[in-house]
Amino acid sequence: MTLPLFEAGGDPGPNFAALLRSTGLVPPEPDVPATEMAIAHATTVVAIRCQQGVVMAGDRRATSGHLISHRTIEKVFPADRHSGVAIAGAAGPAMEMVRLFQLQLEHYEKVEGKGLSLDGKANQLGMMVRNNLPAAMQGFAVVPLFAGYDTTRGVGRLFQYDVTGGRYEEREYAVGGSGSLHAGTVIKLGYRSDADADEMIDLAVSALFRTAEEDSATGGPDLVRGIYPVVAVIGADGFERVADADVETRFRDLLASLEDQGGDS
Amino acid sequence: MTMPFYVAPEQLMKDRADFARKGIARGRALTALSISDGIVICAENRSNTLRKVSEIYDRIAFAGVGRYNEFDQLRIAGVRHADLKGYTYSREDVDARSLANQYAQVLGQTFTHEMKPMEVEILVAEVASDPGGDQMFHVLYDGTVNDESGYTVLGGEADSIAERLGQTYDGNWGVGEAVTAAAAALAGEERALEADDLEVAILVREIGRRAFQRIEGDELAELMAGGTSD
User: Given B51, B56, B84, which is nearest A4 (Cβ)?
Assistant: First the structure.
């Protein structure tokens, strides 16, 4: 690999995607409809604002049609120090989008010597989703959630997208994926604007549990194999993933409380 | 018909080298030290925005002296090289040695083929999990690569600064001691360098993915006042 040097006119600047294009490393667009292939789909993700910032969570299941293709995939990732991205949709393109997005932010920060603003990051992701539109029309849709701690304003913020790259900032919570209807309802009922991260982690855990009961594409906690949803808190200290043991405890508490109620729900 | 004057290749190379050296000697020097906490890079630089020391990749830092626009172009090319390589293969596959070789190729090519050699010296440093594994590559204006260990100095008066630093250098220094010693060596006997005159960064040995951290402002002033603390 040689050192990428450019003439002043053709310099891609701090844009990693433009650099990839100029070096010919961009993979070709898929021209086969996804319906002809069984590809993995990632499902339910949620993001909830809290006093410390934002809580993000996602289940661990990927499905291909009616089959479970992966039990342990992760859908919640740090985008950089103070932001995170959660994905729903075609798993392969989604993972690639997250990887490129992470690199894009880091590359910009290193080249420019200063990171992008939170709005800048949200717009970048919107553009990437927009660029994926031709693939989305073939069935490879990727719909992310983006959340971060805005260090200039000192608040957590979250953004929802549609397949066309439309960017919508939400004030309370955002949900994505196949189970979004159920997860959204649970969060809507339990949300309080003055709640702290601890309460909202419980709410996210409960939302994913309830969703897994209703939506076959959403995975619940797997107590046998020890697989639990990925939960992360993004606050002033940055993106921090909640330990699996902590998530397990919360699930066990939730199960115990449901048993006390006699299992009705 | 006019005949071009014959210039002996030795003379041509010597003239180019003298030109580059003069350009580099006009700028201010910088030094890098490998200590138990990581690699400390300390540059004399009064600007807070035009950086000499920067992050390239997870455990790799870049530092340059001489003409700012020339080494900054090389820095950005290095960031691109590293990010492209990490994207194409994996993050573990990005290393300082291959980057230093790439820089050497470009500098060597420019030195022999272009109108003007680049008036820069650069450092590519990579921190390892133990001090013995630290790598510091010092690349000269003509593409010569030196693999340094312990400490290295780039820029004008590098020899006298290196001599001063060599008298006291200790790999077990804390960060504060290393910065204080580096500042004293860069300053020489006649003057003293304050925190405002320095640009300091460290590749921290014990940290997660991105090891590069700047030490600036009050933090740097406290570190230099404390001397021994870190």
Answer: B84
Using one digit for the tens of pLDDT, what is the confidence trace for B73-113?
Answer: 999 999 999 999 999 999 999 999 999 999 999 999 999 99
Cβ A45 vs Cβ A145: under 8 Å: yes
Lowest mean pLDDT among A7-11, A122-126, B225-229: B225-229
For chain A, how many residues are written?
Answer: 265
pLDDT at position A12 over 60: yes
Each residue of B146-181: pLDDT tens digit? 999 999 999 988 899 999 999 999 989 999 999 999
Q: What residues contact A57, with CB distance under 8 A and at least 6 apart?
A: A45, A46, A47, A76, A86, A201, A204, A205, A207, A208, A229, A230, A231, A232
pLDDT at B156: 84
What is the CA B68 to chain-centroid distance, rounded?
A: 13
Q: How many Å lie between the alpha carbon of A179 and the closest alpha carbon of chain B?
A: 32
Distances from the Cα of A204 to the Cαs of A43, A113, A146, in angstroms? 15, 36, 16
The span from the CA of B34 to the CA of B171, in Å, is: 6
Task: Decide if A72 is catalytic.
Answer: no
* Chain A residues within an 8 Å CB radius of B88: 1, 25
Among B51, B78, B87, the residue with its CB nearest the CB of A103 is B87
Helix axes B96-113, B68-88, angle to 10 degrees: 140
Residues on chain B touching A110 (C-beta within 8 angstroms): 54-56, 79, 83
Angle at alpha carbon of residue B229, lines to B225 and B230, rounded to 5°: 110
In this prediction the pTM is: 0.91
Distance from C-alpha of A169 to C-alpha of A156, rounded to nearest angstrom: 11
Q: Is A4's CB within 8 Å of B87's CB? A: no
Cβ-proximal residues to B26 (8 Å cutoff; 6+ apart), any chain: B156
B133 contacts chain A (CB < 8 A): no
Cβ-based neighbours of A48, under 8 Å, separated by 6 or more? A54, A55, A172, A173, A187, A191, A200, A203, A204
Q: Distance between CA atoms of A94 and A107, rounded to whole angstroms?
A: 20
Distance CA A117, CA A80 (A): 12
Residue B55 near chain A (CB below 8 Å): yes
